[in-house]
Amino acid sequence: MNLNGKTIVVTGGGQGLGRAIALNLAKSGAKLALIDLNEVQLQTTVSLIEEAGSQAKYYLANVTNESEVEATFIKINDDFSGIDGLINNAGILRDGMFVKAKDGVVSKKMSLDQFQSVIDVNLTGVFLCGREAAVHMIEGKRKGVIINMSSIARGGNMGQTNYAASKAGVVAMTVTWARELGRHGIRVGAIAPGVIRTAMTDAMKPEMRQRLESMKPVGRLGEADEIAHTVNYIFENEFFTGRVVEIDGGLCM
Ligand code: NAD
């Protein structure tokens, strides 16, 4: 795939899936604008992209903050003279049971802050970055691509009321934007990874990890590069829009 001269924004580009996605796009010739909260990690991603022979700049911004997101996308649009793609990847987990009851006594429940913080990053952040990217793509008459990171948890998952709701919302936004933006030549897709080896999943208890590995026909967790490869596939396939690609090693068949 040739992405020479294309500028692609990756949120959460400091580590994990965001870093792998950015590096893979850079290897296909894209220039990268990376958004994250972690400057040290961002600097490492930029160095890796430069070693791969492409260009990257990083922007410290919180995807939940409307004015920061607006200013960041204006800056990126100016710095790179346009925006051709967005990978809406920044996301967090704050797992916990919704309600826990023993002997008729409610002993634990997910706090509103625990719920809202995940919705803020995983859903509102995706909305804000998607909106700003679309504005600049349309103004610049770019036939852009937006890819939103959902999850197989979008169907509902124990201990993930907040996360599952956010990731289901991401799919609803993906389809809505594909319908609204198609007339401007912008395609929108989503990826729903299964359990992939990153810092997000390193925190998992070993017994849980073993159980998940044994449930998958491929018998292992996924690798970040396997998700990055899927991003390139969506960029490459001009007939792809409004759909979700599940990459989960067969976990949810
Ligand atoms: P990660 O925790 O390794 O990286 C997430 C990045 O997002 C970090 O660099 C973090 O600093 C950044 N970030 C968090 N909040 C931010 C904010 N408010 N503003 C800007 N940046 C922020 O996670 P990951 O495993 O690489 O996951 C990336 C995406 O893929 C997430 O949306 C996640 O929900 C999704 N996902 C991951 C898995 C998995 O198994 N790893 C599975 C399904 C979906």
Automatic annotation (TrEMBL):
SMART domains: PKS_KR
Keywords for this protein: Oxidoreductase
InterPro entries: KR_dom, NAD(P)-bd_dom_sf, Sc_DH/Rdtase_CS, SDR_fam
EC number of this enzyme: 1.1.1.100
Coiled-coil positions: none
Family: Belongs to the short-chain dehydrogenases/reductases (SDR) family.
Protein name (database record): 3-oxoacyl-ACP reductase
